[in-house]
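WARN retry 2 of 3 for item q-0093 after timeout on previous attempt; input resubmitted unchanged.
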Amino acid sequence: MNQRFQLPDIPEAEQTPLVKSLLALLEQFAERLQQQDEEIAYLKDEINILKGEKKRPQFKPSKMDKKTNDDDDDEPKGTAPKKRPGSSKRSKKKTLKIHQTKVIQPNETIPEGSRFKGYRDFVVQDLVIDTHNTHYKLARWQTPDGSYLTGQLPANLRKRHFGSQLISYVLYQHHHCQTTQPLLLEQLREWGVDISAGQIENLLTSNQDIFHHEKDDLLQAGLKASSYITVDDSGARHKGKNGFVTQMGNELFAWFSSTQSKNRINFLELLRAGKQDYVLTEAAILYMRKQRLPKVSLDKLQGHLTHTFRDQKSWQAFLTKLSFTNKRHQRIATEGALLGSVLQYGMCDDLVIVSDDAGQFNVLLHGLCWIHTERLIHKLLPLNENHREALNRVREQIWDLYRALKVYKLAPEPLEKQKLDHQFDEIFTQQTSFATLNQALMRINKNKAELLLVLERPEIPLHTNGSETDIRDYVKKRKVSGGTRSDEGRRCRDTFISLKKTCRKLKISFWKYLKTRLEVDESEVEYLPDLIMARATIKG
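OK item q-0093 returned
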């Protein structure tokens, strides 16, 4: 009953027919008041959302009074309780390396005639955190001819005064655990390590070519081994200015690169996987024609087919020679030549790029994320009950289609393909009473080929959740450490997050990987690009 309206408590003996009819009318009035209050509260929430404010919090009822297992009543009394999910695990003692064994006798005096019945094992795991300093005395000998022979430091020291184990720890803490440099400095000094802030900076950024080269080869191997990639971008400050980071990857690898722009030229430059050339091919000319480059300009470029330009400087000189002064024409020609370079090496002939519909990613075979597409519908604000019903109905239809596409991916069938194509048309060509919803449906319908690319390529994902998960670590690091201040720092940030995420996808310990590359561990982690190619072969 509505709190603003309470029915009077009239004894049954006093309820005449007239009183009963009046009470019934009052009950209907109270129900209408309740509905009115709910509608007013809903409209207040809508107004708050439109103002950019938050709506009222909604508290769900507690489930503590409900049974966690509906089948508990069916279990006969006296039987052993069911094990919780995940309780059947491997024996930890079989894989643990035991460094020390101690035998502990009972505190009490053992009576004569007692029989020894073995031991009860109790394993304690611990860490030994301590400094380990080595003093190398490099012997020097003078030969009869006056020259000197001097002992050489181990190769893994790389002429540094810090060992590989310490360097691995600094890299792991900073790039994997998001520990800032000031905290690292404080921690190491508390442990007795004589180190400065500048030395930590050098350990994180200097002499990392072995990691940079491996990261550069990651993208080439990933593109060769993959039939699709998902992509995303995010903000990345550098030297006090706003910049961007681009992510590419799939279930085999993740690759990041920070730049000052996020246009299509930038994406194609990254997609070249380290190459620097520009190539005019038939595919490049076809791209320029689709982008409506004027025929006069196309004819100028047509006469230089199969021509390769070494770098950006030579390409710009070529455009100047052909009198390309219009910025739009220069941009389209550059995008086409970059695409020609990408396709020249045969890495992306049938590559599908799945994105959130950001314009810079719309190259090659382009697929769209269904999650981002549905958000166009979800974020609409209905103005009345009819709009709300239409919106809910359409959203349910979209998710039904999405679930059907997931089933299709597992077992593609031609008849099912036609059915899903028809189902798409029914949803996105319908007309509702909500005009804004109709416009959103019309917009989505224009992207039908990209949304239903999965019918032709069932192996591609229906969303970009993988990329959003990958780039979330980058966002966390940005929030913790802010931006980078040097070009080498930005390069190291991109390199180590690429290697870390790739190790995770390949189910390799990042700590073990660092120790192997810095030559402090006997175990070996294979070259990550080679592992990507090998895993792709097994998967194929």
